[in-house]
Amino acid sequence: MSDNDDIPFNRNFPLKPGIVEEVRPGVRRVLCNNPSPFTFTGTVSYIVGRGNVAIIDPGPDDEAHAAALLDAVHGETVTHIFVTHTHRDHSPNTARIKQATGAPVYAEGPHRASRPRFESEKHNPESGADRDFAPDVNLAHGDVVEGGGWRLEAVATPGHTANHLAFAWPERKFNFVGDHVMGWSTSIVAPPDGSMTDYMDSLDRLAAREEDLYFSGHGPEIPEGPRFARFLIRHRKAREASILHRLAKGETDIPTMVRAIYIGIDPRLTTAAGYSVLAHLEDLVARGVVATDGDPVIGGTYRMAS
């Protein structure tokens, strides 16, 4: 298959909540029972290593999931907790796991928006921010953390959130990509928390790396990860082209664009689709391709820049 072939999204993920599954030697996963249109079958937490282990993304505020994770590592020592980003389906359970294990928490930093909020903005993000989260150790791009038989490198992947990190295991060619890349669907990029400009740059960064098996925050593992990242880049560029095609017919608003572009969308995802269109428009306005009066906001009207 060539790089230009479309890659179908893979919605085959039979893992049941609370069951620990060894997906590759040194990598186990446990699914949280929090299915939704945004989380697919639920949030996937990962256990890295054997004996002295790390947990990646403890998940939402969910006592049963915390118990399942702790049960999965019974008799082992949790030495590190990693968090890819601060949405409420990924980070709130960190406090429970830290309290039970005493392990320090590693992440980019507390939740923050990708840009300052505009005066006119009312925000309605898809899963909500975990504003109580604070790591013990702040990681920057390229920082390496080593544990018992594993070594993880922080890869800055802002876009879905400003503080999103992937954690690469270069020796094994694995990458824990959080919500930046998902095999079952595209990621939501909802300003001001998210930024399409950052998101596209981060896809380029992942596509240029050697790791070829991605472990995602939702859904199944993704083989040929860099090729899939390039597919997502093409997919986003096609979405941008659809927006520009609609704007070529005249000035319009975001709900009109969503109806034209997202045919047959689950009605529960309409708001999120609007924010995704806004993220593209924000990027297009910054590049001088599209114009709007005032700030690029969800309620604005947009036209091609003359």
From TrEMBL:
Keyword annotations of the record:
Hydrolase
Tell me where on the tree of life, at the top rank, the source sits. Bacteria
The cross-references to InterPro entries, in alphabetical order and at most eight, read: LACTB2_WH (IPR041516), Metallo-B-lactamas (IPR001279), RibonucZ/Hydroxyglut_hydro (IPR036866), Sec-metab_biosynth-thioest (IPR050662), WH-like_DNA-bd_sf (IPR036388)
- Per its UniProt record, what Pfam families does this chain match? Lactamase_B, WHD_BLACT
Q: Which CDD domains match?
A: metallo-hydrolase-like_MBL-fold
- Renumbered residue ranges of the record's region Disordered: 101-135
Task: Write the signal peptide boundaries.
Answer: none
| Sequence ranges assigned to domain Metallo-beta-lactamase in this UniProt record | 42-218
Q: Name one GO molecular function term.
A: hydrolase activity
Annotated Basic and acidic residues bias: 116-134
Q: What is this protein called?
A: MBL fold metallo-hydrolase
Natural source organism: Bradyrhizobium vignae
